[in-house]
Design a protein that fits this description.
The complex is a heterodimer. Chain A has eight helices and no strands. Chain A is an all-alpha fold. Chain A has one domain (24-148): Serine Threonine Protein Phosphatase 5, Tetratricopeptide repeat (Alpha Horseshoe). In chain A, helix 3 runs antiparallel to helix 4 (66-78), helix 4 packs antiparallel against helix 5 and helix 5 packs antiparallel against helix 6 (100-112). Chain B is mainly alpha-helical. Chain B has two domains: 3-32 and 186-319, Cytochrome c-like domain (Cytochrome Bc1 Complex, Chain D, domain 2, Orthogonal Bundle); 49-180, Cytochrome c-like domain (Cytochrome Bc1 Complex, Chain D, domain 2). Chain B has helices spanning 3-9, 26-31, 49-60, 72-75, 122-131, 140-148, 151-160, 168-180, 188-193, 202-212, 280-290, 308-319, and strands at 231-232, 257-258. In chain B, strands 1-2 form a two-stranded antiparallel ribbon. In chain B, helix 3 runs antiparallel to helix 7 (151-160) and helix 3 (49-60) packs across helix 8. The longest helix of chain B has 13 residues, at 168-180. The radius of gyration of chain B is 21 Å and the shape is globular. Classes of the chains: A mainly alpha, B mainly alpha. Chains A and B meet through helix 5 and helix 7 of A and helix 5 and helix 8 of B.
Chain lengths: 152, 335
């Protein structure tokens, strides 16, 4: 095998491994337990009260289920329970400090609570967590820029 | 016989739930209008005197606008019920804004902010008008630089946020804390609710009877602050979509706007989200039969048969929601 092909093979393997690791960080935040699945479905249907109940059951059953904590933060935010939302996102990030959905949504929550400087910190953490870029980074970046331009 | 009891016995008063008041539920009706305890503050931004003091100074400081020409208080003037007396204010660009300036009275109890409730916290709302090009047109990064360069601000920020360098979060947290202290003071209505029968006149008492009864105003203007903090299409001809214009608009929210508080309403003309009605009389006429019929019209709004005397009594009632003379002391702006 030519040297250049070996280099290319190693690079592609490394990229694939890294990308997978990134995905594991977000999606590998717990198995698809029924309570989380039900919570996610209810949240998608904008039935946030029902989603909250399912997700609370999920974290009671599996307290290390990062995705459930993160989604519970999102649902609480949608229900106007700001203080609880902070607590749940921070719990998710204590389990996985690079969990991209929580970094993104916590950034949004900071914006919604008038803390643009802290939202920018979340954006910087997402920048580190998404070496090759990711939708969460793009989403929060746009929100931070909109806040700065006075979109409210 | 006291007028309250006369009204009850004459069957003029309906409770906000539609049931006729009786001597048995008079206390219940009054209880619904009693003033609450101290203003609540969120856990993520607890009250401190230093923060409220800083917030007040910032609120009155024209440095918060891009041209250092207008402060928050230019549109939210304490002498005008924390509004500006204009149908629609003129921002930094000198053009009328899209909507009438809402009061900042009693926001401590609100859940969603803005006429369409687009922002869930007060902290999240306050930077919007500062940064918006049509309103105060301030670059938020420049604002922080400007504030750091004012020696008089150093001690105010240090007292409010010890051990940290001035940043934009401090501005929003402090202004929101101050705004939560802007609470309408005791009015003749409150003294009457508390049991002083001489606090208000006969006409106002009759007006209150209409307000919670036949006129149905209290269906939305409920509680001590006279707002349900909810959103309704009240049939104004304006094409503004209100809450229905939000990205994630709730169903049937076209032309829906937040019910404003009625506290100090006399000082807050003109009225409505577009400032289109100049007087309380025109507002009452609107609700009587001048509203626009459309699918999204709030179900609470129905044609009313109000006599001239009824209308005068309603206006008399709205007058007694004006707080007793209170002077807002203006802060010294740091140099």
């Amino acid at each position: 095998m030519q040297f250049s092909k070996i280099v290319a093979f190693v690079a592609i393997t490394w990229i694939a491994a890294y990308s997978n690791a990134g995905a594991m960080s977000s999606a590998g935040a717990g198995p698809m337990i029924p309570e989380f699945k039900a919570g996610m479905a209810a949240s998608d249907a904008k039935d946030f009260e029902t989603a909250e109940a399912h997700l609370k059951a999920a974290v009671e059953k599996l307290p290390t289920h990062t995705s459930s904590w993160s989604l519970l933060g999102f649902v609480s935010r949608k229900l106007g329970k700001v203080d609880e939302a902070f607590k749940y996102y921070e719990k998710a990030l204590s389990l996985d400090k690079e969990f991209r959905p929580a970094l993104n949504y916590l950034g949004h929550l900071y914006l919604e609570t008038g803390q643009a400087a802290k939202a920018k910190e979340m954006l910087d953490r997402l920048d580190s967590a998404c070496f090759f870029g990711c939708s969460e980074y793009d989403d929060l970046k746009a929100a931070v820029a909109a806040g700065k331009s006075g979109k409210y | 016989m006291k007028i309250w009891h006369s009204l009850v016995l004459a069957g003029l008063i309906l409770t906000p739930f539609g049931a006729r008041a009786s001597p048995d539920n008079t206390a219940e009706v009054k209880a619904q209008f009693q003033r609450p305890g101290p203003a609540p503050h969120p856990r993520f931004n607890p009250f401190t005197t230093a923060k409220a003091k800083l917030g007040k100074v910032l609120f009155f400081d024209p440095r918060l606008s891009g041209a250092n020409a207008i402060s928050c208080a230019d549109c939210h003037n304490p002498r005008l019920g924390w509004e500006d007396g204009l149908a629609r204010s003129f921002g930094a660009a000198g053009r009328p804004l899209d909507r009438h300036t809402p009061t900042i009275l009693n926001l401590a109890w609100a859940k969603q902010f803005g006429w369409d409730g687009r922002i869930p916290t007060l902290e999240g709302f306050v930077l919007g008008p500062i940064a918006n090009a049509k309103e105060m047109d301030q670059d938020l990064d420049n604002l922080v630089t400007e504030l750091r360069a004012v020696p008089g601000y150093a001690s105010l920020f240090a007292a409010a946020f010890p051990g940290t360098e001035i940043n934009i979060d401090h501005v929003s947290l402090a202004i929101a804390t101050f705004e939560r202290t802007v609470v309408s003071d005791t009015a003749p209505f409150d003294r009457w609710i508390a049991g002083d029968e001489t606090a208000i006149g006969t006409s106002a008492k009759k007006g209150f009877g209409l307000f919670i009864g036949k006129a149905g105003c209290a269906q939305c203007h409920k509680g001590w602050a006279f707002t349900d903090n909810a959103f309704h299409d009240i049939g104004l001809p304006s094409l503004d979509m209100g809450r229905g214009g939000l990205e994630d608009a709730p169903q049937d929210s076209k032309h829906a706007f937040k019910t404003p508080t009625l506290r100090n309403i006399v000082s807050r003309a003109p009225y409505m989200h577009d400032g289109s009605l100049d007087t309380l009389e025109t507002v009452i006429d609107h609700y009587a039969d001048k509203f626009k019929r459309r699918r999204t019209l709030a179900k609470e709004i129905k044609p009313l048969s109000l006599s001239g005397e009824d209308k005068l009594n309603l206006v008399a009632f709205l007058h007694i929601l004006t707080e007793d003379k209170k002077r807002v002391l203006l802060p010294e702006i740091p140099q």
